[in-house]
Amino acid sequence: MNAALQFEGIDKSFGNVPVLRDVSFTVGAGRTLGLVGENGAGKSTLMNILGGNLRSDAGKMVLEDRPYEPAHPKDASRAGVAFIHQELNLFTNLSIAENLFVTGLPRTAGFLINRHSLHQRAAKLLEQVGLDLRPETKVENLSLGERQLVEIARALSFDARLIIFDEPTTSLSVRETEVLFSLMARLHDRGISMIYISHILEHVRRRCDDIVILRDGQVVGEGEAIEFSTARLVSLMVGREMNQLYPTRKKAAASTPALEVERVNEPGIVRDISFTLHHGEVLGIAGLMGAGRSELARILFGLDRYSSGEIRANGKPLIRSGPRQRIKHGMAFLTEDRRHEGLCLDASIADNLMLVALRDYTRSPLRLVQSGRCRQSIDRLREEVLLSPRAHDKQPAKTLSGGNQQKVVLAKWLLARPSVLILDEPTRGVDVGAKFELYRIILELADAGTAVLVISSEIEELTGICDRILVMSQGKVHAELNRDKFDRERLLAAALPREART
Amino acid sequence: MTQLLRRVLLSDYFVLGLSLLYVAAVAPFTPGFVSAENFTNILSALLPLLVVALGQTIVLITGGIDLSVTAVIGLSSIVGAMAMNHETGWLAQSPIAAPAGVMIMLLVGASVGALNGIAVAIARMPAFMVTLASMMGFSGLAVWLTHAKTINALPSGFTMLGGHTMITLAIVLVVGICVHVFLRRSLWGRWLYAVGHNSRASHISGVPVGGITFFAYVASGLLAAMASVLYTGQTETGSPVLGQNILLDVIGATVIGGTSLFGGKGKVVWTLFGVLFLKLVDNSLNLLNLSIFAITIAKGAVILLAAYLDSLRNRFVAA
């Protein structure tokens, strides 16, 4: 097997903390290698070394039989190594074509940009990635999936021979993911080597030729993808036997309604939504991106308006809009966008944890915050959600891993003791170990009588934790399945838009 | 080494240390700089500026900005003086002239702040444009009210507030402690920071974002009017152009102290040290008999330096 890239004995420490220890493996020429591991296993550090953002303490890299020592990200792209990041790096105010050639715009007379040649070359690249859009389209008008294809086109524009995909499907819909995978298959056929990093192990097994598993900065397993089952990958990643991916329920749902939704309508968004969520029940909402799931959650929590219908929490109709009234009625809402709507990233962990319930921790008449009581609650919450003990209360929330950030968002809502908890993509960008802990917390809450509404794009997740699943498509509820009737195929079929069905 | 640098840069007392270093460096060349008399001068110049800067700190914490503070100072000064001067005032010779005059001045400040607050919080207009417009409008109004004349003959019970350094110090101390307790310990204070960090997340978490934003501008207007009371007392004159040159001092001092222009960060002691540093620079250059233009250039350089230090600090926080 020819090697596209070899890591040989890479060591890296931050201060006294070793992050990578003697990491050696080979990416075969023209092959796709899946790199998996929990957050903090060292994947990002290794990729930063590969991309020239960090230098290793020891060891070397060999790129196509030549020593490779990038000192700067520019060296990496010059050597033909391209990165497709989770957080896309495009200029949204510029056109697709300008983004593709932002570092080398074709010019006439030395300084004027040659639009004609720019658009011609861009069109050729867009065709290669199968993106049917005009090169002068502004990137801000593109969906996340389309933007990702533009990034890949950019990688192709400088003849990348090794492309690294870092969690590429996190924000993509099912269909966009399929488009990405078929493009990866075409790149594979053209002999381009790839490294694919993802928490979604089914995708890794499906898309990759080889898999390398990192744990605590060391390679703990490598081999061809067909040698690994998902369960084996998980146990290698977490370092212990995971007997079950989902915790079990201890109690059944009650029959008292917690949230009643009756014929809620908003033209173009949701149509005639009716359902009842009971105390102690975990109700899932499945569907493709754009089916109206998140929009429904926002309406339920009073963030967006609806034109007709009624919503009742614990029997009381919710009339006024706005989250404050919903919180008073015992509702809580974990949004899909953790960074922009969930956390104050620069604020401390403690401040984030106290944000929702702070009102209840003040003494009248001056409404001074009772810091002693706050500290007690923070300590209790941290134990309840198993927040990483290494993190200090005063540390900014952005320094936490995705899983711990999500635990902070969940914990801040728990402090308000909600009776109805709405979770929109609760485990997005969260690693396997932390996922299990989030499921455990959610199910324990349900056992204690909390009504939980979970929106998720991962069908395995919904079938794993829900008592009942509603399937939405084009703003309507198209199917309702009880736990004994859960079936992947049926869920997927109900989620497809009408015209796409045969 | 980097650990030490980090601790120094991120310390609350960094700008105080910088001020002391500045005094030590400049004192040998500046006759009369280190003297009880000069320090009293610095103190009396610093106190009213600190009050305005505290209001600015509150607004900056929410991620906004208030450019209208100088207009508030001029407008309250002239309206207050029109109300309470011995000759033509509505309250002339009345025993309650001084307290009523102060109340009127504060009311003027709070009203301008309320207008700014409504425009920013409810109409969701950009703070920069709103307060720029109200700066122009209200400073114009102040000049128009007296046809650019100043008003003297203010009651002594009023001028004492700003004219007697010890009384001013006592007032500013009380204001400073109140703002400090408000920001660190009160519910609304903590919400101010949350709104500045992320107003969307705060809204979803049930924080009354609109109310908090509105309140910040009212507080800023109120504190600017309070500074106007002190400045007007200091000069014993109601003037429509009072404070028209201090806008950059206010924002510069607040930012030198470490309050972020992007919201979510700011403390009373930071602003105190920022004001102190700026006034030390001001005063020492004055003593060196530099021209006002040279002083302005030097202050510009100092503010630039502060902005650079702030970006350094941010990098250290991120690391």
How is this structure best described in words?
- The complex is a heterodimer of chains A (502) and B (319).
- Chain A has 502 residues and is α/β, with parallel strands linked by helices.
- Chain A folds into 3 domains: 3-238, Rossmann fold; 256-330 and 419-502, P-loop containing nucleotide triphosphate hydrolases (Rossmann fold); 344-417, no CATH class.
- Chain A is 32% helix and 26% strand.
- Chain A has 17 helices and 24 strands.
- Chain A has a 6-stranded mixed sheet, with helices on both faces.
- In chain A, strand 16 (308-313) and strand 17 (316-317) form a beta hairpin.
- Chain A is globular and about 70 Å long.
- The mean pLDDT of chain B is 92.
- Chain B starts with a helix and ends with a helix.
- Chain B is mostly helical and 319 residues long.
- Chain B has one domain (10-318): Orthogonal Bundle (ABC transporter involved in vitamin B12 uptake, BtuC).
- Chain B is globular and about 65 Å long.
- Chain B has helices at 2-10, 14-26, 36-61, 69-84, 97-122, 127-145, 156-163, 165-185, 187-197, 199-204, 209-235, 247-257, 268-287, 292-318.
- The A-B interface holds A 301, 303, 323-324, 327, 333, 335, 340-347, 351, 354-356, 358-359, 362, 366-369, 371, 396, 412 and B 181, 185-188, 190-191, 193-194, 197-198, 200-208, 264-265, 317.
